[in-house]
Amino acid sequence: MTSGRKSAGARPRPAANETDDLARMEPLLAVMDKKDHWAWGPISGGQVTRPQLLLHFQQEYAVYVRDFPVMLSRVHARCPHAEVRRDLAENLYEEETGGLSKGLPHPELFMVMMEGLRFPRERFAGIDLIPEAAAYRAWIDQITTRRPWIEGAAVVTIFIEGSREDRRRVLASEPEPPADIEREIRENFLVRSYGADPRFLDLKRAHHMVESGHRVMAWKMVAQHARTGAAVERLTRLMRRTLDLWLLYRDGVARASGIERP
Questions:
Q1: Which of 40, 55, 166, 183 has the fewest CB atoms nearer than 10 Å to its CB?
Q2: What is the 3-state secondary structure (H, E, C) of 54-73?
Q3: What is the pLDDT of residues 133-168, one digit of tens each?
Q4: What is the pTM of this model?
């Protein structure tokens, strides 16, 4: 899930002081470089069965997609800095309402996408988390309810919303050219390999509409309030632990669904 500024144009280049702030985040970027799991290859390559794909999406929905706005609101409520709360509030508004993009909450857009895959909504009710998924979710809940706001912001807006592409997106010296989102949707693995109707992929369109500048915004809000080496080191340890639990979670989903490692 993701959100950001309303304009859909190329993101502005960060100012010099913002670049310095982001440079201090190198240890965290190194963690995000590793946010990759072997099972994504078979999934995105169309090599898994529909029941295997369903279990993957069921766990994703119950672990974070359904409750992502709640996680974001926890960070917002705990943050004492007005300028950060404004950015978080914009993100939360989009996640809860889709008001900056497609007019529906992002969890609802996810369910529409599942309908496009012909997975009935009732299959996403009362989901039992596998043990590894439950452990990862418990960690997210702990960080967003009991730890300082900046730790919650790092886990929610950087780790959960981000990917291994963050380094390229955040540190790019030039803005990326606008993407042809309709072509990307037609070529998306859900359409190409699993027969999803492109009309049901408005979640992808919403991400495209509000993505501009958002990755920089997420990193900037953390970097501007982690000024010391000790603060960066604490966040790095936090992110490494989050990555470890995420990898175990994805291992568990692969094992539960019977996806074999290439």
A1: 183
A2: HHHHHHHHHHHHCCHHHHHH
A3: 999 999 999 999 999 999 999 999 999 999 999 998
A4: 0.90
